[in-house]
Design a protein that fits this description.
22 strands, alpha+beta, 10 helices
Length: 528
């Protein structure tokens, strides 16, 4: 066509030739760019770090630094499994090459392996961990800082309640070093009520020797697991396999769940698009047809074990890890999909499982659970706690926590959750502790015109919250101050109003009258 046109139209041949040359030159210019990009993609290996495009909470584009954990190729296209640095692992995902910023790639060092969280070498380079937080709940006498009294304390007339202190009269309790305060409990505002303390009994130094708020162990060497069966992950087993999600989707009853973390389900099930679970016995099968066949044989319509609480549609079942081993193991496998700081032990004998369910005409559907050791030498009343994602942000998490403390009250003990807590678990516990302690402080009334007195021990005994957690919560809320030789707890109007609004939203509560629970002495092995 070009030759025909050039023969009849003078000058057109030259024009077409120029267009042809320019088109070919454009291809020649684009070819090195494509080859360069292909070469860059070939250089992207496991352990590389580079910015990756993702959407934030406001649905805006951002380019956080991410680490390549795995590379796979399908239909001639590469996909990369990335972990966003300083982000929770539940946000890890597979991305294509279009979301990678190859200009800022950082290659892994070949000289030495990157240490894992506890300082031990891992099989692959691991993400950098945050520095452990400073101990904000150290011994009352070991952390001393004088806190001056604001001027408005002297200008305003306030109602005061005396708090009988267990510390030295000349030793002020340090204020919380938290950098940010929850919006529900702002620090500023006019003083509504002041709780003052008087010198009293001495407190043992370093009664809060461990950092209750720290998410990661600061020890370089993991401690040996307790014989009673701690579920805390020591991170010595971290490798590239356990750092990646291996289950795509789980169907549990009428819900489909997207797992957050690795869970050691059988290898042949990890390649399936959907893993099917029976919502009553938690048995896992590979297909919907297998699940339907199983449901015709499964007689369970509630978790195995004793129903120890029922109010309305909410029930709690106590399950012995020794007597119901299959159910307990299946529950642990499911929970591991959403818990990262705990490891999985197939020996469930040392544990009790308390499963919360919601009842309808089809049966008792699992909402969440917590587990606890039968014998805990460290006063742990919770080992693992989980609310399944479809039921989160509906008050069920606080209900589980409140139930665990109700059991501690019946046992006549104070309890605390096993550390470390997950980020969501820490938020839930802090919120529960804050609301419970503020509820007690606001209910105090003066007698004979004198300030009512209360001790940390009394708060602990009334709530079954361990003393260390009571003090750390008061410090977190920034309520403790030292003024004129005594401790005072200052509740601002904003804190009180925020607490009252939060309690109005907290509809679900545990009714102790509906609890039918008899604690056992597990020190006698015959009870196992």
């Amino acid at each position: 066509m070009c030759a025909f046109t050039a023969y009849y139209i003078p000058g057109c041949y030259l024009l077409v030739s120029l267009v042809d040359v320019l088109w070919r030159s454009k291809l020649l210019l684009l070819l090195p760019l494509a080859q360069s990009k292909m070469a860059d993609l070939m250089e992207v290996i496991e352990g590389c770090r580079l910015p990756v495009l993702r959407k934030n909470q406001d649905n805006e584009d951002e380019w956080p630094l991410a680490e390549i954990l795995s590379v796979k190729e399908s239909n001639g296209r590469k996909s990369f499994y990335v972990h966003y640095i300083d982000f929770n692992k539940r946000l890890d995902e597979w991305v294509n090459s279009d979301r990678l910023d190859l200009k800022k790639i950082q290659f892994p060092k070949k000289e030495a392996r990157t240490p894992t969280k506890n300082g031990l070498p891992g099989s692959k380079p691991s993400s950098p961990e945050r520095e452990p937080e400073q101990n904000t709940t150290g011994g009352v006498e070991s952390e001393i800082r004088s806190v001056g009294c604001p001027q408005y304390y002297q200008k305003r007339k306030v109602d005061a309640v005396s708090l009988v202190s267990q510390g030295s009269p000349t030793t002020p309790i340090s204020s919380s070093s938290e950098s940010s305060q929850a919006s529900l409990y702002p620090q500023n505002g006019a003083a509504r009520r002041v709780v003052a303390a008087q010198p009293g009994r001495k407190r043992k130094a370093n009664c809060l020797g461990t950092d209750e708020d720290s998410q990661d162990s600061s020890d370089g060497i993991p401690s040996a697991p307790r014989m009673t069966g701690s579920l805390v992950s020591d991170r010595s087993h971290d490798d590239i396999i356990t750092r990646m999600k291996n289950i795509e989707c789980i169907e549990l009853g009428r819900h489909r769940l997207k797992p957050w973390y690795f869970s050691p389900y059988p290898q042949e099930l990890t390649t399936l698009p959907v893993l099917y679970l029976c919502e009553f016995c938690l048995k896992y099968v590979k297909s919907l047809r297998c699940l339907q066949r199983h449901l015709t044989k499964c007689n369970l319509r509630h978790p195995p074990g004793n129903e120890i609480y029922r109010k309305g549609t909410i029930s709690f079942f106590e399950i012995d890890g020794r007597k119901n081993k299959n159910y307990s193991q299946n529950l642990c496998l499911l929970a591991k999909c959403f818990l990262d700081h705990k490891t999985l032990y197939y020996d469930t004998d040392p544990f009790l499982f308390y499963v919360m369910t919601e009842y309808d005409s089809k049966g008792f559907h699992i909402v969440g659970y917590f587990s606890k050791e039968k014998e805990s030498t460290e006063d742990y009343n919770v080992a693992c706690i989980l609310t399944l994602p479809p039921y989160q942000r509906r008050g069920y998490g606080k209900l589980l926590i409140e139930f665990s403390y109700e059991l501690s009250k019946v046992e006549g003990k104070t309890g605390t959750p096993e550390k470390p807590l997950s980020d969501l678990g820490l938020l839930s516990y802090r919120s529960y502790w804050s609301q419970t302690i503020l509820e007690i402080l606001m209910s105090l009334k003066s007698e004979n015109g004198e300030r009512p007195q209360i001790t940390i021990n009394e708060i602990s005994e009334m709530t079954s919250i361990k003393k260390e957690d009571v003090i750390s919560t008061l410090q977190y809320l920034n309520l403790i101050n030292y003024y004129k030789g005594q401790y005072i707890l200052t509740l601002s109007e904003d804190i009180v109003e925020g607490h009252e609004k939060a309690m109005l939203k907290r509809v679900l509560r545990i009714d102790p009258k509906c609890l039918h629970f008899t604690p056992k002495d597990w020190s006698k092995r015959g009870k196992w």
